[in-house]
Amino acid sequence: QVQLVESGGGLVQPGGSLRLSCAASGSISSLYVMGWYRQAPEKQRELVATITNSGSINYANSVKGRFTISGDTAKNTVYLQMNSLKPEDTAVYYCNERQYVPFKWYDYWGQGTQVTVSL
User: Fold this and answer.
1) Helix/strand/coil percentages in the chain, nearest 5
2) pLDDT in the model for residue 66
3) What 3-state class would DSSP assign to 72?
4) DSSP one-letter string for 28-51
């Protein structure tokens, strides 16, 4: 089992910045993908950014150039630095950890943190 605890959400004005953190604990595999997803009201959950254990990174087109995902393996923590925030970035942001334990992939989710971009 893996537990994910997110922090760092809040209210910010358009053009502002926020940094989300996700701390993982428990039985963590050496082969994993960690990432951030978001879900706006009445919309489906969508991928924001992911980072693998080997450091490969992927971003949604809508956040490229504005958001940066990074990881601290010593702390089992992944971060999402969000700059130049827009009202359309408003959503609940969820941390996800997908890990491989022979011979299956397992998915874990955090509880979510609200990000609101508004004047």
Assistant:
1) 5, 60, 40
2) 98
3) strand
4) --SSEEEEEEEE-TTS--EEEEEE
